[in-house]
Design a protein that fits this description.
By secondary structure, the chain is of the alpha/beta class. It has two domains: 328 residues, Rossmann fold, CATH 3.40.50; 97 residues, ANL, C-terminal domain (GMP Synthetase, Chain A, domain 3, 2-Layer Sandwich). The chain has twelve helices and 21 strands. The protein has a six-stranded mixed beta sheet, with helices on both faces. Strand 6, helix 9 and strand 7 form a beta-alpha-beta unit. Helix 1 packs across helix 2 and helix 8 packs parallel to helix 9. It is globular, with a radius of gyration of 22 Å.
Length: 430
Amino acid sequence: MPIPEIEKQSLKEIGLFQEKALAKLLEYLDRHSVFYKNQFNKHGISIGKIKHLSDLAHIPPTRKEDLQANTSDFICVGRDKIIDYITTSGTSGDPVTCVMTENDLERLAYNEYLGFRCADCTREEVFQLMTTIDRRFMAGLAYFLGSRKLQSAMIRVGNGIPELQWDTIQRFAPSALIAVPSFILTVIDYAEKNGIDHHKSSLKKAICIGDSLRNTDFSYNTLGKKIHERWPELTCYSTYASTEMATSFTECRYGIGGHHHPELIIVEFLGEDDIPVARGEAGEVTITTLGVEGMPLLRFKTGDICRGHYEPCKCGRKTLRLGPVIGRKNQMIKYKGTTLYPPALYDILENIEGVKNYIVELYTNTIGTDEILIRIGCDTPSENFEKIIKDHFRAKLRVAPAVSFESVDYINKLQFPSMSRKPLKLIDRR
């Protein structure tokens, strides 16, 4: 299947298409959603007057707290139509439960099919899935369904266990892997320590989930550089997604942002006042799902701060492109007069030789302000190494957090707590 026609239309034509889809969604919510019906009544919203995308500003945004407190009120179908139950990872609060119908699973497959097509994947692809498909995790399921839609093959290995990953690579010769980017470095480390020439492996591309690979100007960040330098034969494609939106944004070969699929989702970028920011400015990604049957969302604030990019892409798509995540709104740090987001800390730590692994810990001090403690796993801790680390932070951010040296094994246990579905880099105790 070529690029869907709607993704080759002008932004104006895409807007008209989405306005028709929005009208259908509002009618559906008014009939089937207890939460949104109450919202419309409470705020005196007449859905018949919401005719343009700009009219969405008259509807209060939905927040994660709303989902956590009123889950059942968001469900628009009876139990007999629910096929799958999914929960978010809960890395920024209590997990949120989502439900999916047969039609929702078909939509999820179509979404991931489109993502694979953005990454130039074909039916000849053999994927190696290095993320979990169990533990109520949506991503692994989405990739599996998308691969079926593409009519390609998938090897479901799951996360972790580098030895098993390489055994699988050598047995089945997959052409593409699906993984958290930081784990790709672990896969490389294992190969180098065990005499495996990863440069001559069958793998040619990686669909990356979770960690960002790029800076806001689309250049590789430290993690992206490390993977590219150590495995240049592997082309990495960044993706952005969340469980609640059941939609992903995947880079194409030009690497200038994740492509928006307007048939599946409406995207806004909101400022602190919940008003859309000016085009090109950073704002909180706020989404309205289209075509979702079980648990559709209207103006849901994801918590992620990003920029939209609106120029047509050389791949032929004219849709909005989503820039790398700058940070999560609820993880913003006010530290010694400087505003920071955790990804800025990660990028520095990834670039310091001798740092094997780490956890960033945030807490509130006795006077009520933010404090940062970097727990670092390394082989040779010393006062001089601590000074080197702090000098890196001062050079990049003008401030230096507290540092604590721990064993590599201890940090690894912090990063992978029981039942974790992805590695943790942040513990927020504020």
